[in-house]
Fold these 2 entries.
Entry 1:
Amino acid sequence: MTTKQTHSFQTEVSQLLHLMIHSLYSNKEIFLRELVSNASDAVDKLKFESLSNDTLVEGKESLQVHIDVDKEAGTITITDNGIGMTQTEVMENIGTIANSGTKKFLQSLDKKQAEDSNLIGQFGVGFYASFIVADEVVLTTRKAGDDKANGTIWTSKGEGEYSLETTTVEDFGTKITLHIKDDEKEFLDDYRLRGIISKYSDHITVPIMMIKPAAEDSDEAIEYEMINKANAFWMQDKKELKQEDYDEFYKSLTYDFEAPLAQLHNRVEGKLDYTSLLFIPAKAPFDMWEPKRKGGIKLYAKRVFIMEDNEELMPMYLRFVKGVIDTADLSLNVSREILQGNKVVDTIRKASVSRILKELEKMAKNKPEKYATFWKEFGMVMKEGVVEDASNKDKIAALLRFSTTKSDSEAQSVSLAEYIERMGDDQKDIYYVTAETFAAAKGSPHLEIFKQKDIEVLLLSDRVDEWMVNNFNEFEGKQLKSIAKGDLEDLDSKEEKKEKEKTAKGFKKTLEEMQKILENQVKEVKISNRLSESPSCLVADENEMGGNMERIMASLGQDVPETKPILEINPTHPLVEKLKAKVDENLVNVLFDQAVLSEGGQLKDPAEFVKRMNKLIN
Ligand code: ADP
Ligand code: MG
């Protein structure tokens, strides 16, 4: 009594299959790692569920993964007695790509990048890796606890279609048979498969079984043996582990090809009892900005895998941290809901955050080159930290690095402490300018007076910067102050101030007339005390957003309140002197448009600007 139906893969799946089959030739063996990891996940899930419902395991004593090779038939079969899948689950899990980040990522992927199999693990194409070596895959599964008649057979040749059939399946769990392609027969070798397992899957705690070699041709009964070590790596003694061991473990945990920048391995005993092994990767993951990305911390309770999580065990700004936390203080029955606000989890999280921050502090001090790499990859995320994590604000602020007018490089390398050390005796505040690009920040006319007076200014052009400085405004008692907002009176000496006031007096009428012309665009026209080269610039009121923030908000689709900037003009500039003699409407408009352009803004009517410029030139 079976019914067979044919379905089409979701477009993205076909795309993915195509990509893999055609460009992933350099590292074909990973198919086994993917299937074994799925099988082990399924076993972990069943172990976990059976804690509250022991009928699920149907009397089976041990949960394992078996790998069988049939040379004559040309097949490899991976069998697990894990949780299994219902037919609906098969359709949902195998045949679609649920993760929207993966979809977007696929669309942006080119062939060169696809060849980098490092990416495969990162975006979880797992199961489809079968088709790298197989031209037909048959998956038979039954969910633990379901009726035997409710099994499913899924078949596909990986060419856009798959078929589903309902059938009776004796054992719960999942069996996947790969019909190996003619030119991939090397994988039908027992030793080759054992080698792949020990390379990638040794730390998997579920036993992986293969037939003992001697049994193959003899009359003895078939006997299986365990081929993985199945040790929980993180439980080993720190003293007995070498850096290579950590690197290997990290790679098998994350599928990263590069060794991590640093690791923190701690065993805590006493009030709480847990082991944590945390890694700081050397490269940012492609989906660091994807809100729904998978967690990087695997939570175990006494070596039983509970869940992969980032939200509860790590704050958002440390979402790049990978690793394992294994504790004896959580019941195996915890759910995500219970984890929220759980005291044990809170304590572990706090301690982990402290350790990571301390490690980074150490790295910044002792290995500045390494820290520069770290900052390049993760600096933008760390900047979120000063706002997100109030309790560690000062520590995180000390880890921040910036480009400044003195470092003069796009690579952010100046710490706030360094900035403060270089401050002049009478400088009170930490100055910054924000812009959309480094070039725009560096070229900002607002910097002129600061250059003249040799005052260092932070050049902020990461997207997160605006938001950061709006929420983080003090470091070691020094205010962070935008040089494009409010007045800058305190920079000038008494004499300079007097001098400037005198110049400004003669401009009263000019300013009034200019203001009339620009009535709809600006709040006020003022004599500037920040310009020495440029004729004009825009300034926001002390408590207004400023042009850069408005543009960011608008690009995020937010409603931006209509605010008018202040136009400041440089009384010593020849164009402005000309205006003093006679206010010319055309020139006034040009000065305004130039100010908009130089802060990285866009003109409402560029053609009009060109006309005005031409008129001026003539
Ligand atoms: P991932 O493992 O990253 O979720 P995969 O493509 O490897 O992606 O697997 C997709 C999904 O299919 C899994 O999340 C799981 O729900 C299901 N699945 C795959 N293999 C098995 C298996 N052996 N037993 C039960 N479920 C499985
Ligand atoms: Mg998988």
Note: Residues 120-124 have pLDDT under 50 and may be disordered.
Entry 2:
Amino acid sequence: MRVFSLESVIDEFEELTKDAGQQQRETLRKILEQNGEAEYLQKLGLGGRTDPESFKACVPLVTHSDLDPFIQRIANGDTSPILTGKPIRSISLSSGTTQGKPKLLPFTDELVQSTMQIYRTSFAFRNREYPIGNGKALQFIYSSKQVQTKGGLIATTATTNVYRTEQFKCTMKDIQSQCCSPDEVIFGSDFQQSLYCHLLCGLIYSDEVQFVFSTFAHSIVHAFRKFEDVWEELCEDIRTGVLSSRITVPSMRAAVSKLLRPSPDLADSIYNKCTRLSNWYGVIQELWPNAKYVYGIMTGSMEPYLNKLRHYAGSLPLMSADYGSSEGWIGANVNPSLPPESVTFAVLPNIGYFEFIPLEKPVGQETEISKATIHYIEGEPVGLTEVEVGKEYEIAFTNFAGLYRYRLGDVLRVAGFHNSTPELQFICRRSLVLSINIDKNTEKDLQLAVEEAAKLLAVEKLEVVDFTSHVDTSMEPGHYVIFWELSSDAATEEVLHSCCNCLDMSFVDAGYVSSRKVGAIGPLELCIVRKGTFHKIMDHYLDLGGAMSQFKTPRFVGQSNIKVLQILNRNVTECYFSTAYGI
Ligand code: AMP
């Protein structure tokens, strides 16, 4: 029995968003009262004032590097009120894949509460349109390693910090259906073994599964690529009731073995379904016939996996999940029937105090989303209810966990309003990935260039499995290097050369085009890497303590990221140089 009604969650959300401006003032007051003793705030001379005007006048906008020295002191065991009134007892590590290395961030009970509020809210809206019964969920979720900081605090990824709590377990029972896999799989010490067991447990409960989930869509695509390799072994385990010898972690082995019984009929049915599928199209729908949808974050850096995810899902709806970060949550998807490409996030006005830095493109620059570039002029920050529909902003927020006017580095567009709270569309990370001189290209620009060039491969029924980029300045002039892993090595030289030219032509920012024309940037290089290379890169990040649940392929590899560059360079099988500009 559910402990809360979905109607009451929707009512609560409607109430909260009716006067979002008032909620914001109230939330800021609570944050500043609760954390008024913190050294950080004391030094800024707020003197107990909690109104937005005084707050903005006294407290500067900051980035993570400004707060890092304070967070390091907390991690080193200083329990004085540094960023918050109450001492911080846990640290979150960001995935590290957007910035190159994990950031340390404060983690508090309030973040657990806001996570649950976001999950509950989007679930209530989702369930109104796609009701699910009391079944199970095939969830590809993984905890990451937990380490102790110098000061003895537990440091792990934000998702793991959340999974560890009782509140998560209770809320999940209410809203997400029970995970098919036991805790020993989620908290297993070997990601590959956990993945195999998630698939196996999902198959054991195939009739009960109501939906398929992972935090980021990449994990679902990754899981089904693995399924293509191991499906016969999974069938064998189900047929005999004996778990594959590949599962060696004792606790995981014991927990999953308990669920396994010899089930030759189920094994036959899975086997027959798999052999009937054409190139694995619709495998999720076929094997989990009662699943209603596939759920996970599908926006931003997950967009490149959408085609493959659609392929595996067949006609099951794809529903994109909420928007947040290790720093804190921001908005919930309350329009679940929108396709992932146009999904929006309604900001919850009571979980933080939000500000938006207007980003204007100078006259003459492209303004379409498809030509997203970074030449922005920044305006004065505005409040949550002052944003304008159609405009782009960088978000900055203040929350209960000790972050004040913190710039997250994401660019968002206001798509509309739900009552008086904005619905945001994720555009891209603000940081540049590719830049040599006056050229400026973001992750989004790279993604669009890859999408354009990959169309040439589609004719040959080939796909880009994953991609990243690098700037090679070892020789004058510097040039862009794009690494592609392909679904097969059947691509002809001719096609790959056209792809390389197409990539070069698809970076349309004026700085790049003019530099290419005069030879200030050299011909773009397309490097094809062996199958499995991006898997090795992921393993490398997991070894560093990252979590599969938060993994995002880094779309740019800098010169200092020696290990990842080595993995890429050692696996290059062929290279092409663009002849598009004739220079
Ligand atoms: P991390 O804290 O390492 O998990 O990464 C947080 C970042 O992931 C955010 O700042 C966004 O750039 C990205 N992100 C999180 N949620 C979404 C979403 N729903 N859509 C697009 N990007 C997202």
Note: The CA atoms of residues 227 and 475 lie 43 Å apart.
